[in-house]
Amino acid sequence: MTAHQDLLAVLEERGFIHQCTDHAGLRQALAEGPLTCYLGFDATADSLHVGHLQGLMLLRWLQRAGHPVLLLIGGATTRIGDPSFRDSSRPLLDATQIARNIDGIRSCFARYLQLDGHLGQLVDNAEWLDGLGYLAFLEQVGRHFSINRLLGFEAIRQRLERQHSLSFLEFGYTLLQAYDFVELARRHACRLQLGGADQWANIINGVELARRQGGPQLFGLTMPLLATADGRKMGKSAQGAVWLNAERLSPFEFWQFWRNCDDRDVGRFLALFSELPMDEVRRLAALQGAELNQAKIILADQATRLAHGEQAQQQARQAAQGRQADQLPALQVSQARLQESLSLAQLLLENGLVSSLSAARRLAQGGGIRLRDTRVTDVDTPLPANLDGYSLSLGKKRHWQLQLR
Fold first, then answer.
1. Residue 390 annotated as binding?
2. What's the average model confidence in pLDDT over 291-314?
3. Which CATH code of 1.10.10.10, 3.30.420.40, 3.10.290.10, 1.25.40.10 fits the domain covering 330-404?
4. Does the annotation place 173 within a ligand binding site?
5. Would you say 38 is a known binding-site residue?
6. Domain 7-223, CATH class in plain words
7. 179 annotated among ligand-binding-site residues
8. What is the CA radius of gyration of the chain?
């Protein structure tokens, strides 16, 4: 990104922006000079996962444009848990678990951001919340919010409408987050809070609290909540969370997550999770058929290099290519059966690889069948006549090479 580019326009083009409290005001504030921003992370696990990656990449773009970033770890608020759009309370963690989790996620940050104390630093809200008295909190914060207004927020309203329990502990979470924003403005001159779309109400409360207390104008910006094209929550796979720490998920498996993404997600993921110019992103996203696999490899390379470094990325790619280059077990396909419009589902059933045609369809719908490293969604379509040498994969561990006979 060049100095004369409109940063908000760049971020919007890449798909980072969902809502903003004041587009014109924020654009002007960003153009006037360094604007400190923050993004919060509750320490509910000892690693971040791909669901956090959109926020890390947004911080990375802001920092590269010269804006200082604060990574707020919720050492205090993790003990409560954000109830936003959840039907049940999060498990309560003790101080030892939270400290262990903070150590784990701290290592994720340094791979994406410069943490030199000037352009980037970690802060923990336990610094100001642990010593804050209840009556002092009510006087400083609670008196500025009405229960009527809080009950109107969608996340709380949905929880109550479904008749799911909402503890007073959780009900107060939004006030704590609002106080975090005001305290960061006071301590670090922070004026911009980032968050997912589900954090909109919490962010607005912080902006409003600063206004009511006579503080500086604060801004809020949310990112779209991401789901994959097949409807799964971003950061989840059939095998579980896609972790950013190698101790939780190997760089090879991380690389494969991106390499095996849905065709419909390639352009969007390249824009969000790589730093390629948008012209190149659009070119790669426009590729079709087998050529689109090359775009997926580029996506996997870009995402893995950022998360684990260039050496790990190269090793992961070589391991994937090595698997393809190895002599895979052969699966014979009759030319005569191909002429009878043999489908992939029939081929799998006839070779005992699935228990029924419906089982093959279910496996395909779950993303578990790939032909030539391309996901197959329709297993009832007749197979092509030129499939000699094609690779066939069922899940991550069963692979064959098709051979005509």
1. no
2. 95
3. 3.10.290.10
4. yes
5. yes
6. alpha beta
7. no
8. 25
